[in-house]
Every structure is written in structure tokens, then in C-alpha cells.
Amino acid sequence: MFCSGCRCRAALWGCDVEALTSLAYGFSVAATPFNLMLALVGAALGTAIGALPGIGPINAIVLLLPFCFSLNLPPESALIMLAGLYYGSGYGGRISSILLNIPGDPGLAMTTIDGYPLAQQGRGAAALAISGIGSFIGGTLTVVLLTFLAVPLARLAVSFGPSEYVALMVMSFALLSTMGGGRMAKTWAAIAVGLLLAMVGIDGGSGVERFTFGSLELLGGIDFTTLTIGLFAVSEILVVVEGLRTGKVAEFSGGERLRTPEVIRCLPAMLRSTGIGFFAGILPGTGAAVASALAYTAEKRISDRGTFGKGDMRGLAAPETADNAAQTASMVPMLALGIPGSGTTAVLLGALLLYSITPGPLLFTQRPEIAWGLIASMYIGNVMLLVLNLPLVGLFARLLLVPYWILFPAILALSYAGVYAATNSAFELVLTTIIGVIAYGMRKLEVPLIPLLIAFVLERLLEDNLRRALSLSDGSPVILFTSPFAIVFWLLAALVVLLPLIAPRFRARVRDLSEGEES
Amino acid sequence: MAANATYDRALGLIFLVLGIGAMWHAQSLQVAFAADPIGPKPFPTIVGGVLALAGAALLIRPERMAWHPGSWSKVAAVAVASIVYPEVLIPIGFVPATSLLCLVLARALGGGWVQSIIASAITAAAIFALIDVLLGLPLPRGPLGV
């Protein structure tokens, strides 16, 4: 572990003690009755929404973000609830993957491979239990790593100037374009569209109107809730209306329960997958989809005796564990650098920006109640979810039996009510629909939406840093390439973009791995 | 439907036009005063350039992709209902407007007429009760007061 300022062992040990005291402080924030209740509400609602067919973590958060904001919750409480929703929906998402064969999220695509056969063999309850345990182990071990890694990383990032930040963000985009799945040109186009959408409105530096086309309503820019509800909720509903997605709910009650030897047999797979998930998760652009695919492939290579794909517990435990580990690990760059690596962390970051809180390395020192409260709430949330999920999973699974014509109108109505509550404007509702229809078209044309969202959230930070760097040098772009860190980031960015062009086989493999990345 | 490259070409063309449009718009910005020597122009110019390049790449090297057509008419019906919804929301109030929107969506998802009407009215009323009454976030109340 690298720790700036203290390189000897004793000092390094000192850092760890510091992490523990900070964590204790975090628990004092997260464990107030009010915040505990919000975490529980978030986790339960997240599981319920995540369990709905085709609805993934990002939809769950997006749907409830406007309410958190309009209710004027303190930022740490809002974030604790949203984070509860985030991992709750991860737990819930496996229900529709296993019982219905419909993954709500690209990260869950691998879960269906062994999960659905298990459900068809009448072991749906056992499959849900093992994936719950896997999710718990992956999530919890990763929070422990996060506790000790976030601050050293943030300390390192404090020394970053504007040019390092510009290079770091360009590198994130480059990673997103190669590792995120989808065609590189389409990902870059999505990033550019996201950046342009964020520029709409009055430019802070000069007071000039950009891309408003004379519209008064657009002067303040595109509202974050409007964008996210349009991109994810409305477009999702249009995809459902199109009616190409059908499935039959497998039986989940009865059947042989999960036995202890089965859990023990899965443990090595879970530990390996936690490692894979963690490393995939902290890189920007890779995230849960790549993590679960890598973990499944690795586990298949290690332990397959012809049983994988036909309902092997380990084939289910591996991607589930990696998925949750990556979800949690993607909080590391979000908290320590202020740069989100996944769509969901981009929404959390956007939520912080709504509160006028600039995330980044200084968050740990300036707003410790937010940073450490959130980290502590992840420990609590994981335990809550395991306790909530093992006995109540049948109840959540029953949601799959609710007919679409009741479920989706309610989601659409809730989406519009949310946008209205957050903005008090009918114009924003029109904009939401327009964005939703365009996003639906983009999904049909395989243009990824997550890079668009990440770019939208990062625009301000990127442009501000670019302009700050260039004004330091009086307009000479050379300043962007002078510091050692910046050079490393630029080189990595160039490597990541050029490697697939030079070696098409590498590109093909990455695309196979992240198959299904779309929402 | 067979895979074909037209979709990628059309998409590439749209991105190319949008990218050039963004660059052109950036050049037209009149800066009276800027806090920094760089101003608001270069960034949209660069980003517009990236978009145009990505569009050109798609146009030159399109990939064949299959378009899976679903129920177009249903998608269109829901999209139109969603566009109309904000226009009627304030005049007639949240509950009536939302009931109508939900009705269109419920019918598009295969609910029967009677089922859909009942479910839509209950959904709209329940969400109003939850958001407006319980959470205290005001939603538009039309002539009926809901």
C-alpha cells in the first residue's frame, strides 16, 4: 500500500489505525436511528425494485433520486439511502436473473447461465440463497479493502493539479471505450453527446449561453434527474412495450434447501471472484459486467467438470460475488478521485453535485461525515441485506408474478411524479420524454448509455480543469503533458485506445467478455 | 430482419452532422468578458470534433447489425401519450392526467379494458397519496383538487 508522506512501516501502520478511527466515526454517523432506517428503507426498496424484470440497479436509484433530493434530506442521509438502494437492487436483480432468465443489468448476465438451470431443476430457493451469500461475501470483503485503500489513494490525488485531472479523465474515457463493451466509435460518440448535453446552459466562466437555442428553460442547463429518468426509466419502459422480452417464472418455493457442504464447496470460488471483482471494479470503465464475466470464465477454467452451464453452484456463486465486489469497488475511484467508474456511481456523484458538494480527494478531510458515513453504511447495509434476503426472498420473488400492465404504468407514473417533484416544471417532463425516446433509439442502435451519463457528470470537472490548466500556461497546451503522472495517464489512454486497433483479436475478446453491455 | 450496415451509416451521419453543428455553434459564441484567457469556445469545439470523428468512423466502416422490430405502434402510442401528458398535467391535475397515461401504457402491455382502467386509476391515486399527501411534495392539483 502506498501512503504519501509516510513511507516507513510504523507510519504505514499509523495510517491503518487512522482508517479504523475514521471508520468508527463513520459508524457513529451511519448508526443513528434515522440513518439506519433510511438504509433499511433503501435496501428493502432496492431489493424490491431490483427484483422487477429488466429493472437494474441504475433504474432503482434513478427512480428514487428526485424524492431524496426534494425531501431535503441531509446529504449523508440521502447518500446512505441511495447506496442502500444500490446494493439492494444488486441483491434483487439476481431474483429475476435466476427465476426468469432476464438479467436486469449487464453485470447479471452471467448469473443466468447457471442460475436459471438451477431454478428449472427445482432448486430456485437454494440458488437464491447461494447467490445471496456470495453477494454478501463479495460486498463485505470489498468494503474492508475500500476502508484501507480509499484514503491513501485520496492523499495521492490531493497532489494532482488541473493537468493531471484532465489526463486522468481522458484515460477514464479511453478505458470506457475499450473495456465497456460496444463499438469504440459508438462509445466515443456517447461520451461526446454526454459532454455536449452538460454544456447546455450558461457557461460559469464567461456568462455566455451555450446550446440553449434561445430557450429560457434551458438557461439553467439540463436537470440531472430529467436526464437520468429519461435515459433509463422512460427508455426502459419503451423497450418493455416493444414486447420482445418474455420469460416464464421458474418455481422457487419448495425444492431441496441449500446445504452447508454446498456453501463450503463454493467458498474458494467466492474468494477468487472477490479479488477479480475488486480489481475490475476500481478501474474506471470496466465495472460489474466485465468483472462477472471474468470471474465466470476463470471459475469455469478452474473447476468445470462438464457441469458449468447446467446448474453448477460455483458457476452461480462466482459471477454473483464478483458483481457485488465490483459494485462496491467502483466506489473507490468515486470517493477518492471524484471520478465514477460505473453508471450507478455516476448517479451517486450526480446526487452529491445536486447538493453542491464537490466529490474528490478532499471529501475525506472536508466532509468526513459523508465519506465515512457512506463507507460505514455499506458494512451495515450488507448485513441488513443478508438478513433481509435469506428469509424474505420468496416475498420479493412474488413481485415477478405481478403482471406487466400493473407494474410498468406505476413505474412510469412514479418517474414523472419524481421529475415534477424535483423540478416543479412541466417543461422538464417534456424534456424527459424526448430524452427517453432518443435513448430508446440509441439502445436499438447499440449506442451505450452509461458512457453518456458518466461524461455528463464529469463535464464540469473536465472543462474547469482544462481551462484552469490552460490559463496557468496562458493557453499553451504543453502544460497538459508536463507532469509525470499526467504523462503516465496520457500514455495509458493512448495504449488502451490504440492496442485494439493494432491487435483486433484482443478487441474481439474484450467484446466477448462484456457482451450485453447496454443499460 | 437481415443484418445490414444502413443503420450504422445513418447513425454515423447523424453524429457527424451533430458534431460539426456543435463546432460551428461554439465558433459563433460572442465572448464579452471571460474570467480565463481560454473562454467557453475551445472545449465544445474539441468535443464536437470528437463526435464528428466518431460519426465519420461509423460512416466509413459501418458494421452490419440486425434491427429487431417489435410492436412499433405500441411504442409510438406510449411515446405520444408521454409527450401529451405534460401538456394536460397542470390543466386537469395529476390524478386524471396520470390515470390516462397509465391507461395507454397498461393497454399497450396487454391489460384488458376494464382491468386497465381500474388499475390506472388506483395507481395514479396511490402515487398522489404517497407523494403529495404523505411526503408533502406538491403535485399539480387540477379543477378536481387532485
UniProtKB/TrEMBL annotation, chain A:
Pfam families: TctA (PF01970). The keyword Membrane applies. The keyword Flavoprotein does not apply. Residues 36-453 form the DUF112 domain. Keywords: Membrane, Transmembrane, Transmembrane helix. The chain crosses the membrane at residues 34-55, 125-150, 156-176, 188-206, 218-241, 275-296, 334-358, 370-390, 402-422, 478-503. InterPro entries: DUF112_TM. This is Tripartite tricarboxylate transporter permease. It comes from Rubellimicrobium roseum. The lineage of its organism: Bacteria, Pseudomonadati, Pseudomonadota, Alphaproteobacteria, Rhodobacterales.
